[in-house]
Amino acid sequence: MNLELSERQLILKEAARDFFQKECPLSVVRDYREKGTLDRQLWLKLAELGWLGLAVPEKYGGQGSSFLDLSVTLLEEAGRALLPLPIVETLSGAISLIETGSPDAGAQLLPQIIAGKALVVLALNDEWGDFDSRSAGLRATLAGSAYVLHGARSLVPFAADADLWITVARTHNGTTEDGITVFVVDSHSPGSSIDSHRSVTGRSLHKIIFDGTRVGLDGVLGETGKGWQVIARAACFDAAGRCSMAVGSARRMLELTLEMAKTRVQFGQLIGSFQAIQHQCADMLITVDGMRYATYQAAGFLGRDQPCEKQISIARVCCSESYKQVAASAVRIHGAVGFTRDHEVGLHFLSAQDQELPLAHGDFYRRTIARELLSSR
Fold it and tell me: Tell me, which fold does domain 7-118 have in CATH?
């Protein structure tokens, strides 16, 4: 597999890095951690550059680039800058809209997403934090020309700032994938409310409570009762996008750590001269390259519309665990300053701890890998 970036990808990557260095300094990241406020102006600037439509087909007003282009350029650089915006959530939602087979929904909503007018998040975890088709969590009952939603979705980042929530609800009885329907819900719909809390890392997470929320038939994405395949696909994009951001953040921690090893003096010597530090730096590079390879492979399969559940699951487990290993090594080598939010490494460390919260955790992806390995096919 060729991991070299094309000339176009390199140009996009450099442009994204320059943009984030200018428009998303660490003060913006700290502001989000401390106050939980989203910078909507920064979101509109991304839209003005056309980056929200990078991987959206041209017929919807996008640029028609591949998901791999999006991953290795915009998302990786967003991770490097610790961008406190729902870029993965919205772009995963946008791509899932395209793939639902609902051309009317795509034609109506995708131009708004690309223009930065509609901020979309995926609300998929059930009330107990699980992502599973067997979880009841949220139910929808047909009442005339609308569905009425009762239940909750939890651990949803950026829910309070979103214009639209893409969620799933059970419309037919059962515990299988059949009977699951995908809905686009206006965040200002009567009957919906938000219970917000902060994680130990300072990240804002929200529980969306649906208590008689009505969603019109035009809010159904795809076929009624056949939505699990749609949302599972969207979850694959979400997972691959998070892996790309983790790679960007991990590579930045490696850069900062190498710089520290070359300049910090202990016992009259540069700490980079100590074998223990050298080995840790080497291990960090090996780990980051492993994350990068797994992510590029998954994004490539996904962008070519190939079966890729196994590749996505491998990348998600690898990146989730390796990201935290790299963060721990970076903090050890930086010493006490690495634990503080005043230092860039400390902010990356917090981001690494957040990696598993928004959607399915490692056990879910391990089950996916095991199911494919042990199937009779």
Answer: Butyryl-Coa Dehydrogenase, subunit A; domain 1 (1.10.540)
**Contact 272/261 with Cβ under 8 angstroms?**
yes
229-374 classified as CATH 1.20.140.10: yes
Question: Rounded to whole angstroms, how far apart are CA atoms 118 and 338?
Answer: 37
Helix-strand-coil split of the chain, %, nearest 5: 55, 15, 30
pTM for this prediction: 0.92
The CATH number that domain 122-226 falls under is 2.40.110.10
Instruction: Specify the 3-state DSSP secondary structure of 149.
Output: strand
Question: Where exactly does CATH 1.10.540.10 map onto the chain?
Answer: 7-118
Question: Could you tell me where in the chain the CATH 1.20.140.10 domains are found?
Answer: 229-374
CB within 8 Å of 330: residues ≥ 6 apart: 253, 254, 256, 257, 284, 338, 345, 348, 349
What is the C-alpha separation between 218 and 147, in angstroms, rounded?
10
**pLDDT tens track, the chain, 377 positions:** 677 889 999 999 999 999 999 999 999 999 888 887 788 999 999 999 999 999 998 988 899 899 999 999 999 999 999 999 999 988 887 877 777 767 777 888 899 999 999 999 999 887 766 777 666 578 999 999 999 999 999 889 899 999 999 999 998 876 677 889 999 999 999 999 999 888 777 788 899 999 999 999 989 988 888 888 888 888 889 999 999 999 999 999 999 999 999 999 889 999 999 999 999 999 999 999 999 999 999 999 988 877 888 999 999 999 989 999 999 999 999 988 888 888 999 999 999 988 765 565 677 788 888 888 887 55
Query: Which residues 6+ apart lie within 8 Å of 142 measured at CB?
Result: 148, 171
